[in-house]
Amino acid sequence: MSMKVSDHVLQRLRDWEVEHVFGYPGDGINGLLAAWGRADDEPRFVQARHEETAALEAVGYAKFSGRVGVCVATSGPGAIHLLNGLYDAKLDHVPVVAVVGQTHRSAMGGSYQQEVDLMALYKDVASDFCETVTVPEQLPNVIDRAMRTAKARRSVTAVIIPADVQELDYTPPEHAFKMVPSSLGMPAYAPVPGDADLARAAEVLNAGEKVAILIGQGARGARQEVMAVAERLGAGVAKALLGKDALDDDLPYVTGSIGLLGTRPSYELMKDCDTLLVIGSSFPYTQFLPEFGQARAVQIDIDPHMVGLRYPFEVNLVGDAREALSRLLPLLEPGGRAEGWRERIEKDTARWWEVMERRAAVEADPVNPEYVVHALDELLPEDVIVTADSGSAANWYARHLRLRGQMRGSLSGTLATMGPGVPYGIGAKFAHGDRPAIALVGDGAMQMNGLAELITVAKYWQEWEDPRLIVAVLNNQDLNQVTWEMRAMTGAPQFLPSQSLPDVPYADFARLIGLHGIRVQTPEGVRGAWESALAADRPCVLDFVTDPAVPPIPPHASLDQIEAAAASVLKGDSDRAAMVRQGFKAKVQEFLPGRRPR
After folding, report:
1. Model confidence over 373-388: pLDDT tens digits?
2. What tens digit of pLDDT does each residue of 58-84 get?
């Protein structure tokens, strides 16, 4: 039997060592689905409940495997549904290839059913490479370029294949005019900065007396080098959220996350430093970096298009973080640092973790969400993969979990979309079926798509060597992050028609579909629930009924924001009494005896 175009597409993906494709079926990819049947489901077709979550699963897979994630969808509505997940990949610099169907070539331009101009639709999200296959001879080039470009540029690429083209007999490109043959492979490479630029960077860093380092996900492969540079410079290290797992949180000079979801020590590190080294991060919030003119700054980034952003850097180094730091380190001089700088960083960081412990212990009605995540911290398996959804769950992930060693973690860092928590966890399990995964999810995201993706978990979990995928739902019946943003940023009271959520029995639903489920309504039950889930023989949903009045107070909380929150009370906030009580109880933990005066 002759090979169809669809057969060749799957063969080429196998040649690229693609093992999983996340998707949802539709008649625009019927040719591909038939080819999957002929190929004995290789690469494995992982059926999500929705194309958006299929794309998010591909993102999670790529983030935790280090490989290219691949997703597939039908023409028209299927291709449209992929977009949110693809933008999540694009903005977080994650390599993902989308393979999408299209109506027959004979119907294109005829306002046909489900016909959408996919080249125009994908022009932005797949700006690095997007191509429609109109004849068989374009393959394997189009697949090869999509895979290679996604990997090389850490970006989204797209291959559009009309339904009738999928069914054509495959004929390879010939050794002829206007034919484009292709080859496999993406060789490893690690660009390095020039010697003159390294010398300039060393001059800036050696002159600093109070050095701060900010790392992002680009520093993940340079853990030992970052530690060596921090020791040589006597620096503290703050982390952008996408780089939370790039360096151990239990190192005494690691101040934790930065920004609105960050820590007080990270805020003060940036406020008081005179020199800044940024490694592999495009952290966007300039107001959390040193004041202009306060600090001399050096940036290291592998992408020349991303250097010079966010801050007036004096020296920009383009190169792989590990290779750049290895070459920079011999040029750095020990000593000459401000007396007590490093000691103060370590003291403030230790104090912060004490504050977090006390904040977690603050009584709430019924359960303090900070305690839920804080209790997990010391129970984390050494090889765990943690995902966090957008919303208040991300606050507690950022501030209460100390990732260390082999532990991995991620969230939607730049798009900050709701709904990646459970899909990321599924992607992580297909990347590492032998490792436990935990998803921290708000009830808003759980209702948006998490409940549906529990069905995906139920469909596949028995294939995983380690069956543990724990979905922890912070069930406060409120779209809590937006509610607090309304209070703190605009002084507006909670608007119940938009913010209030129904109480859904998440644990009951989990048990209904064959998973484990526990509902927790008292603080006494929190630790035992985590222990039960971690010991379970199947995925588990933990339904923590938490207090919406516990505020995600930012590390720099100002009098203006406190006054704005108070104003929302005067305007009739539905939860005003509890909100004020919990806010002051949490904030006062920072000023208990032993706190250094500011």
Report:
1. 999 999 999 999 999 9
2. 999 999 999 999 999 999 999 999 999
Q: How confident is the model at residue 596 (pLDDT cuts 50, 70, 90)?
A: very low
Residue (of 89, 109, 107) closest to 98 by Cα position: 89
Please answer whether residues 276 and 237 qualify as being in contact, where contact means their C-beta atoms are separated by less than 8 angstroms: no
Q: Which residues make Cβ contacts (< 8 Å) with residue 560, sequence separation at least 6?
A: none
569 Cα distance to chain centroid: 34
Long-range (24+ apart) CB contacts under 8 A made by 310-316 are 310/278, 310/282, 310/283, 310/284, 310/286, 311/276, 311/278, 311/286, 313/278, 314/200, 314/204, 315/197, 315/200, 315/201, 315/204, 316/197
Q: What is the largest CA-CA distance in the chain?
A: 80
What is the Cα–Cα distance from 283 to 205, expressed in whole angstroms? 20
How many Å apart are CA 294 and CA 270, to the nearest integer?
10
d(CA 546, CA 444): 13
- Compute the distance between CA of residue 103 and CA of residue 114 in angstroms, rounded to an integer: 7
Strand partners, 546: 367
Let me know how long the chain is: 598
pTM value is: 0.94
d(CA 543, CA 79): 33
Q: What are phi and psi of 454, to 5 degrees?
A: -60, -30
